[in-house]
Amino acid sequence: RWLSTGGVSEKKIGFIGLGQMGSRMAANLIKAGRSLVVFDANPVSVDAAVALGAAEKADGVKDVAEACDAIVTMLPASKQVEEVYLDSKMGLLENANPNTLFIDCTTLDPSVAVSVSSMSTAKGHTMVDAPVSGGVGGAEAATLSFMVGGSSDGFDRSKELLTLMGRNIVHCGDAGKGQVAKICNNLVLAITMIGLNEGYNLALTHGMDPDTISNIFNTSSAQCWSSGYVGVPGTKDYDNGFQVALMAKDLGLATKAAEEAGVRLPLGASAAAMYDEMKKDPVVALKDFSYVLEHLKGMNGSK
Asked: Which CATH number characterizes residue 32's domain?
């Protein structure tokens, strides 16, 4: 094993978590010629990564830890991060090689990110939290934005790998700050998505042409990221986007962080309540979060 100064040149890169996002991120590392050791709870996802060119598949987290010098994780939530990193027998921290670089791209509770990072440092490793923005399309095109929390050394070591998976790599501060940036970003995203769709729904109800009102939004003061997105996922039945359930999770994290800081989120609370209501339907929970338009349409006529 060997390390380059100021970057990552490890012989083997571990990748744990090959879902909608992780599978595409791993694919970009493979395309860049990196030797990947992959693991996921779903063996079908592992086999798909191997078919794309992953060097080997691991039987578990412990095997990834023992084989690699840098490990990327992309997991569902805080619970899975704690299980993968902290298990006393099979976890990454217990079994990793000295001075392993951990890049956790999961969106999770900032306090958990800080705690796991502290334990990683205590064991002689380097860890950054690096949640992403850009969705499935960004993961596939390697145009993701990474919000990185951790030491300057950790940021420098991780940047080489992150640039193979994304376009905008920002050091947000020390451990946990990447998570803070991500949940604040998604808080704003949820609020603007609901606001744009409220206006869109109102315009359609009054008989406006969808393309006309969309053009108005995109060329007037309502213009924002969401304004260019409204209506597009609906043409694909709201499939394969950023899921309602994931937005509900992120808003829950924002709500918790706000409560801990004594900050009120009037609009955020309303957005969180709306997405929590939407995710109760198991079909809707898997739809793109812009499905809020259909939810609002369903409220038409009610008082």
From this structure: 3.40.50.720
